[in-house]
Every structure is written in structure tokens, then in C-alpha cells.
Specification:
This protein is of the alpha/beta class and 253 residues long. Helix content is 50%, strand content 10%. The chain folds into 2 domains: 25-41 and 127-251, HAD superfamily/HAD-like (Rossmann fold, 3-Layer(aba) Sandwich); 43-122, Orthogonal Bundle (DNA polymerase, domain 1). The chain has a 6-stranded parallel sheet with strand order 3-2-1-4-5-6, with helices on both faces.
Amino acid sequence: MVSKTCILSLFVKYLLITKLRYGEKKVKFRYILFDADGTLYDYDNAELRAFKNTMQNFGIDRDIALLHTSYKEINYAIWRDFEEHKIVAGELREERFRRFLAKEELLHDCKKMSETYIDHLSKSTALLDGAIEIIDYVGSKYSVSLITNGLADVQYSRIRNSEFKDSFEHIFISEEIGFPKPMKEIFEHVFKTLGYPEKEEVLIVGDSFRSDIVGGKNYGIPTCWFNPKRLVNENGFEPDYEIEKLQELRAIL
């Protein structure tokens, strides 16, 4: 039989772990800002399917895995440029495919390939596990908005055709605002729209440390890093909260 002392010891240890992971006490949040891709939407799956379908549409029968790896490297680099405000969304759409086609020595029209890819991507509404449940829970208690570094036509199409079509009070898309996360200007736009609440009342939840967590921290709002892949944090500072599953957000709110 387990002694009372042992049970008490285990309980104290649990409290210490919880304190380290979720903070010493719950904060009275009023507004929750969710990132879209990689946080609520299964972007990895959607992006791969869109790429495969695009290659098929253009009759490209080379090794899809190798082509996709090549494209992802280019796409990642160009989105980094976008986050640093070195390129605008309108240029990003075609430039990534121009670079991809040049690198792979494929003779196709980058504009047409971009349009085909975006059409496929905009039709994908796959969600991550627990996304519906956590939005239902959070939406019943707080003001919930979406803040995304995405292309407006793609994001609106996906939201409109998913279970989230009526879930968000506001939808903030970087292409429309003119500034991406982590830039302070997009957060200034958000706060103006929300009526300038106290910063400690607003929590941002996202999977990208670079855009969501750095952006939130630099603007002075609490941050929650959604880290399902258990990535090592090598960024020099800690988020206010870190979760591996969306349902863990309940312990914070």
C-alpha cells in the first residue's frame, strides 16, 4: 500500500512541474490570438497534397519526394524574407516557383504553376487533432481571433470551408494588413481593432517561435508556444507557456 507521505511527495512534485510548465497562476486573459497553419490547420499535409497535385497537373513525373524537398527549402527561405519584410506577398506567390523551376531546370510558367498550387492549397481544410475541441472551449469563454502570415485568398477559402467559418471574432491576415508576424505593425493593427486592451489580457498561441513567440514577446504580450514536435528551444529566451497538445491550453486558461 502506498503511504500518505509518498502520495503527498508525488503531489508536491506534480505541482512543481505544473508551475514550471504553465506558470505560477492563471492569468485573467480576455483575448486569445491563434495562429492558423501548424497550430489549427494541418499545413504540412495540405502543402504536400497541393504540391503533388500541382506536379501532376503539369505532367512532371520526376521523384516527387526530391522535388518537394527542393521546393520546401526555397519556400522556407522566401517566407523568411517575407517575415523580414524583404518581399511582399504579391511577389512571394510567383517568386518561389520561379526559383524552384530554375533550380530544377523545369520549363514551365511560374505564374500558372503558382495559380494551380494556390487553387489546390485553398481547398484543403484538414485540421490538427484537438483543434475543433479547443476552439469550441476557448470560444465559449474568451474573444478568439486568428492571426496568420498567409495569403488572403487561400486563408479565407480554407476558413470558409472548414468547421471554423463562424469561430473567430476577427481574422488578421498579413497580406491584407501589409505587415507579417513578427513585425510590431501587425500587432498594433490587432490591438487597434480590439480596442486597445491591456497587453497582459491578450495571449498569442502559435507553433512558429520566430513569428508567433518572438513577435508576441517583442510586442509585450504573453505567448504560448505550441510545440507538438518537441523542438529544442535555442532562441535565447522562454515563451510564457509551452504545450505539446492543444488540449493542454485548458490548464493555462
